[in-house]
Amino acid sequence: MSNESRASLKGEGAMVHSPGASGASHVRPLSPSTAAKPPELPDELIQAGWSKCWSRRENRPYYFNRFTNQSLWEVPVLGQHDVISDPLGLNAAPAEGADGNLGNGQRKRRSSEEQAAGPNSLKRAKAEPTTPISPSVPGAKPWCAAPDDKRGTAAVAPGTPSPTPAIYKPTAASNVGLHLVMSCMCVCCPSIYWDLDIQTNAVIREQQPAQHLPPHPEIELQRAQLVTKLRQHYHELCHQREGIDPPRESFNRWLLERKVLDKGWDPMLPSDCEPVISPSMFREVMNDIPIRLSRIKYKEEARKLLFKYAEAAKKMIDSRNASPESRKVVKWNAEDTMSWLRRDHSASKEDYMDRLEHLRQQCGPHVTAVAKDSVEGICAKIYQLSSDYCRRLRHTHLSLLQDPPADASASSSSPPTLPASSRLVYCYPLRLAQPSPSLPRVELHFENDVACLRFRGEMVKVNRGHFSKLELLYRYSCIDDSRFEKFLSRVWCLLKRYQVMFGSSANDGAGLQGALPVSVFEALNRHFAVSFECFASPLNCYYKQFCSAFPDTDGYFGSRGPFLSFRPVSGSFEANPPFCEELMDAMVAHFEDLLEQSGEPLSFIVFVPEWRDPVTPALGRMEASRFLRHQMSVPAYEHEYRSGTQHICKREEMYYRAVHGTAVLFLQNAAGFAKWPPTPERLAELTASYRPSRSTPAAGPPPLASAGPAHHLPADRDSSALNKAGDRVSDAHASPGGHDKNNNGGSPQDKMAAV
């Protein structure tokens, strides 16, 4: 049926543009007016997007859904079988009559078949929908509260308060329904990457509610803009001062390292750190001076890289305020290298790499001396801007709260520390002391298997499976929104936070969010009673008990808060931290403190990269710990990780082979070792669970996660690819903070951004 044939039953010819349409050809009928007489459809159908229209061609009424672009000759049935969101028809309401087992789409086709044959006997197929598709359940209308909302919406001025959100209707109305939905998902999509039925054995002391401010889409949108601006400043400073691109993922690792020390209010941006100069950022920028060294495969690449390094070192020492001795040493070595390259054309790749290493040893200290002040200036400037942005965000956030805390002020440097109770309880999701204000409206629609949430033109995406997972976690964990009125707004804030944390470029931060395979989690739970993840997020967690980076957004979805602030008394835990040296070192210090103080069974099974050249401080410290009960190694290419972008990536990209070895260490106190001993049989089962599936790609993915240890040979390092697969970043230069990882830092935020 053509668009021109649609008209309302009242004979109104007025038409309105679809919200997503770009041309005049895409139009939608106005809904029947409710001012003059009661609506001709039940309110539930109107809220689900249905309206009664008139077909001028067929000369009879039909029913059109503006969310799904579906048209029916018969009256729609609320709760009808939607083959996309409800493949098995578990939520379908039986229809009356002989056609009760047929969906509306089938009934419509039967009615069409009864019409006379001819070119106009059937409705023509519609084009791709340009309006938001309905949510996962027919009848759910998360962004409209009344039939009047079906009118064309005008643009909202930035200062105008958003309309009050309508109640989001979850997929099922009860826990039983939720389990049915998950069963349905298992049938239609067998690759489910979580098990939320596993109960926790983690015991903690009862905690006071956290003093973080509740999330708000307006603040999250402003934070996203400021973080993007800060990234741009970092990029410009690296170009202007050193003539290099910022090392990839170095900004993300800076956020991780800073939050280990940060005592400020903002959950993402650092504002109260000591020292101001970040060792992580300084080290990574200095690694790429005078040029970025990449992994070498062929002799010609090694020759070219050696020439570029000599040329860049000589140019840099000439343009900076260097001492005469430094100029002499660098120039002599650079010219000697260039002369050798002109004379010897038969050298091997190993000869070129040896010569490059010698050149770096001779010139490195002098290059560091002339670049040190400039690189420290980059680090200090970025930190200063971050502190200014934090003050601005907090001031705006407090102005949005209906009842701000009495002691809150924009100048407050850090939240107060509240004492824990002596009462022992099973761990529970983090609670916020400040009540959440009313939240603005967030629109939801689906594009195939992807849920799209939009606020003020900013869209975030998550696949249907993970959207349902967030719904489950919210139902299990949230205690202040039983009607799901704030669900969509909080999901938008959650997704936006993690998107901003790792950047908007393809694969940014994906490695930092990587997780263990499902089979490994199952083996850990079956043989070692593991029921808790120390570094996860609502998006990549396997259990519903986990610690994560952001207590304000993640607490509503089951997070117990940042791990370095989490103090369990007993339980069995899995730890797979982001591969940031400072964070891993602080993690080990926290493990030993907890194991030392607890007399109850306490066990941590830790998964870290097996970097040996040189060994990372965290790995060396764990290997020397008196709580180490067993250590095993999983060889490179013989195991896999789950992608950090699992909530949005394609199924074939879900797993990737690890190109570095992984060390698995069992840290347990005496009671934990007696209760969950790593016996040979259990270890054999765990090793077998690590075997990669046949469909797993044989190489690591583009997602990058860590810069690796601080020192390594240039032949084995790849500063341009700093990935979780073990590409190393060398550092022949001294960090301003030395190699002190500042283990005694304040309140880090852990994973996925896990800091």
Write the layout of secondary structure elements.
Elements: E1 6-8, E2 15-17, E3 27-29, H1 43-47, E4 50-55, E5 60-65, E6 70-72, H2 104-113, H3 175-188, E7 203-205, H4 217-242, H5 250-261, H6 279-287, H7 299-319, H8 324-343, H9 349-400, E8 424-426, E9 443-447, E10 450-455, E11 458-463, H10 464-477, H11 487-502, H12 518-528, E12 532-533, H13 551-554, E13 568-575, H14 581-597, E14 602-609, H15 617-623, E15 628-634, E16 640-642, E17 655-657, E18 662-668, H16 670-675, H17 680-689
Parallel strand pairs: 12-13, 13-14
Antiparallel strand pairs: 1-4, 2-3, 4-5, 5-6, 7-8, 7-13, 9-10, 10-11, 14-18, 15-18, 16-17
